[in-house]
C-alpha cells in the first residue's frame, strides 16, 4: 500500500488495486528537485500519451506530480515500470489515484500552465521542485559593458556603492577591472534572479548618468549587454522580427556587434541599446528573457541527452564560455554522470568516425567563412577534419560536409554547424534545424542496425526521435560498406549516431571473439 496526498489529505492507496479502481491517473512522488521538466516529460511519454501532468504543492524537497495517461493500459505500464525507478539517485514512488477522487476537484494547475508536447512555449521555470522554494537564481548572469571612467563611481568609496547594490538586489556582482587592460570599457557580471539583475542594471545606469552630469560628460551612454553568440540568433529572430518587436515595445534602438568580431576566445556579441534609462531597463528585461529562454531550452535538451548518451562531456561543447564569463557549467549531476562514463573501455583511444552531413548549398559560404577562416577555426575547436565535397551538379540544393574525428569531435563540429545554420537564418525562428547525416556501416552489420523485421531501427527512431533509414538493395561500395541515413535535429541525430556506433562496436567485439575462438582450436561455426 502507498499513501497519496491529494488536496492536503493523505489517502491510503493499494498498489494491487482492484481492476474497477484502476484509473488513467497516477501520482508520482520523490522526483529529484532539480530535474528538468523535459526529462520528466520524455520519461513519462515512453509509456503512452500524457494528457495532463500537474505539479502538486508539497512541503517535501522532492517534487510530486499527478499524471493522466490516454488510457488505463498506459497508466498500468507506467506504474509497473516507474515505481522504484532510479532517477539521479532518487527512487520514484508511483501510485494510482482512483477516478472518483480525482474528479472531486482538479489539482492546482502548474502556475505557468502546462506545455503541451507539441507546442513550444517558454519553458516552465527550471524544474518541478523549484516552485516550492524562493525564486531560483537565474543560471544566466547579466553581463554589461560600462565605460572605464565610470567604474570608480559604480564601486564607490571603499566599495560602499557596489555593496549597497548587491544588498538591495540580493545579487553577486563582479566588476572585471583587470580584463582588457587599457580598454575603454570593462565588463560587469551580475548573478541574481532575473528581477535582481534588472534592478541592479537600472541602478548602475542611474549612477553612470549622475556621474556623467557631475563630470560634464556629454556623450550618450548606451546600455551594452554581452551575450553568447549561440543565443543571439534566436534573440534576433527570422529577418530580425524578435529584435524589431523589442525595439517597438520598449521604444529603444538596438544594434548587435557583427559576427566578424567573434573569436574562439571571445564568443560574446555586444548588444547596444539606446534610449532613456526607463526604456533601456525595459529592453534589458526583454532581451535577457529571450536569452534565458534559449539557454534553458539548450540545457533541457542537453540534460535529456546526458541521460542517454554515455560519455558525453557537456563542458566540452563550447556552448558556454569558460566560467570567468559567468555562465556556470551545466548542472553537476549531468556533467558528473557524463564524466563518469568516459567513452572507450580500458583506456583505449576513442575510434575516429566519418560522418557525411548535408547542408543547404547556399550555406556553404557561411560555413567556410572569409578566406576559409570559419572552417579552419571550427576544425581546430572540434579537433576534427572538416571538408566540403564538391557540388553534385550545378543545381544541387545540398552539399556534403565530411567530418572525421572521434565522438566528441563529431559532437562539437556537428553542433557548431547546426548552430551556424540557425544563426545565419537558414531556418526560421520556430523551426528546429533538421539535417540529414550519413554514416557508413559494413554491409554484414547492416542487418544488425535494422534488426529482425525492422525492430532495432524502429526502436532507434522511437528513442532518438530521429528518422533512421537503411535503404534496401544498396550495392556495397569498394570497402564493402553501405549507408545509414539519419535525419533529425542536432540532439536526435547525435543520439542515433551514438546508438548505431554502439551496435557496430558490439558486432566488432563478437567478430573478434569468434576469431580468437577459431584460432585457438578448430570449432564448428555456430550459426
Automatic annotation (TrEMBL):
Residue ranges constituting the RRM domain according to the UniProt record: 24-99
Q: Which domain of life is it from?
A: Eukaryota
Compositional bias (Low complexity) spans? 120-129
One molecular function GO term is: RNA binding
Question: Please, one GO biological process term?
Answer: mRNA transport
What's a single GO CC term here? cytoplasm
Residue ranges of the region described as Disordered: 103-142
Concerning Gene3D superfamilies, the annotation shows:
3.30.310.210, 3.30.70.330, K Homology domain, type 1 (3.30.1370.10)
Q: Where in the cell is it found?
A: Cytoplasm; Nucleus
Q: Which family does it belong to?
A: Belongs to the RRM IMP/VICKZ family.
Q: Name the chain's protein.
A: IF2B3 protein
Amino acid at each position: 500500500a502507498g499513501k497519496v496526498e491529494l488536496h492536503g489529505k493523505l489517502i491510503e492507496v493499494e498498489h494491487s488495486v482492484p481492476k474497477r479502481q484502476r484509473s488513467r491517473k497516477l501520482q508520482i512522488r520523490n522526483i529529484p528537485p532539480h530535474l528538468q521538466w523535459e526529462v520528466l516529460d520524455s520519461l513519462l511519454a515512453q509509456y503512452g500519451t500524457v494528457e495532463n501532468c500537474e505539479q502538486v504543492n508539497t512541503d517535501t524537497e522532492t517534487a510530486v506530480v499527478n499524471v493522466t495517461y490516454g488510457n488505463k493500459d498506459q497508466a498500468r505500464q507506467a506504474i509497473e515500470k516507474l515505481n522504484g525507478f532510479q532517477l539521479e539517485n532518487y527512487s520514484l514512488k508511483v501510485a494510482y489515484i482512483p477516478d472518483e477522487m480525482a474528479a472531486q476537484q482538479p489539482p492546482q494547475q502548474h502556475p505557468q500552465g502546462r506545455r503541451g508536447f507539441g507546442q513550444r512555449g517558454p519553458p516552465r521555470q527550471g524544474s518541478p521542485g523549484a516552485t516550492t522554494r524562493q525564486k531560483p537564481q537565474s543560471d544566466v548572469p547579466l553581463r554589461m559593458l560600462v565605460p572605464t571612467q565610470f567604474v570608480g563611481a559604480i564601486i564607490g568609496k571603499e566599495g560602499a556603492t557596489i555593496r549597497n547594490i548587491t544588498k538591495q538586489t540580493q545579487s553577486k556582482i563582479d566588476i572585471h577591472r583587470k580584463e582588457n587592460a587599457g580598454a575603454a570599457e570593462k565588463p560587469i557580471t551580475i548573478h541574481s534572479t532575473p528581477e535582481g539583475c534588472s534592478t541592479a542594471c537600472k541602478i548602475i545606469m542611474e549612477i553612470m548618468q549622475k556621474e556623467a552630469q557631475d563630470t560634464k560628460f556629454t556623450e550618450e551612454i548606451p546600455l551594452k549587454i554581452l551575450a553568447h553568440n549561440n543565443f543571439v540568433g534566436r534573440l534576433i529572430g527570422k529577418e530580425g522580427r524578435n529584435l524589431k518587436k523589442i525595439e517597438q515595445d520598449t521604444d529603444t534602438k538596438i544594434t548587435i556587434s557583427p559576427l566578424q568580431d567573434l573569436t574562439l576566445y571571445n564568443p560574446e556579441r555586444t548588444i547596444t541599446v539606446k534610449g532613456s534609462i526607463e526604456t533601456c531597463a525595459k529592453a534589458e528585461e526583454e532581451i535577457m528573457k529571450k536569452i534565458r529562454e534559449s539557454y534553458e531550452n539548450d540545457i533541457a535538451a542537453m540534460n535529456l541527452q546526458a541521460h542517454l548518451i554515455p560519455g558525453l562531456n557537456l563542458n566540452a561543447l563550447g556552448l558556454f564560455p569558460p566560467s570567468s564569463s559567468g555562465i556556470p557549467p551545466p548542472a553537476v549531476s549531468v556533467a558528473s554522470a557524463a564524466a563518469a562514463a568516459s567513452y572507450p573501455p580500458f583506456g583505449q583511444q576513442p575510434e575516429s568516425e566519418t560522418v557525411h552531413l548535408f547542408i543547404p548549398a547556399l550555406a556553404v559560404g557561411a560555413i567556410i567563412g572569409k578566406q576559409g577562416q570559419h572552417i579552419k577555426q571550427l576544425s581546430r575547436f572540434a579537433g576534427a577534419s572538416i571538408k566540403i565535397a564538391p557540388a553534385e551538379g550545378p543545381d544541387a540544393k545540398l552539399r556534403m560536409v565530411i567530418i572525421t574525428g572521434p565522438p566528441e569531435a563529431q559532437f562539437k563540429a556537428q553542433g557548431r554547424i547546426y548552430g551556424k545554420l540557425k544563426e545565419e537564418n537558414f531556418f526560421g525562428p520556430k523551426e528546429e534545424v533538421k539535417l540529414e547525416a550519413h554514416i557508413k556501416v559494413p554491409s554484414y552489420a547492416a542487418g544488425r542496425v535494422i534488426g529482425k523485421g525492422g525492430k532495432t531501427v524502429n526502436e532507434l527512431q522511437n528513442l532518438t526521435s530521429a528518422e533512421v533509414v537503411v535503404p534496401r538493395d544498396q550495392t556495397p561500395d569498394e570497402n564493402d560498406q553501405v549507408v545509414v541515413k539519419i535525419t533529425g535535429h542536432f540532439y536526435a541525430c547525435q543520439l542515433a549516431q551514438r546508438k548505431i556506433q554502439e551496435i557496430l562496436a558490439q558486432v566488432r567485439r563478437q567478430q573478434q571473439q569468434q576469431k580468437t575462438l577459431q584460432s585457438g582450436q578448430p570449432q564448428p561455426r555456430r550459426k
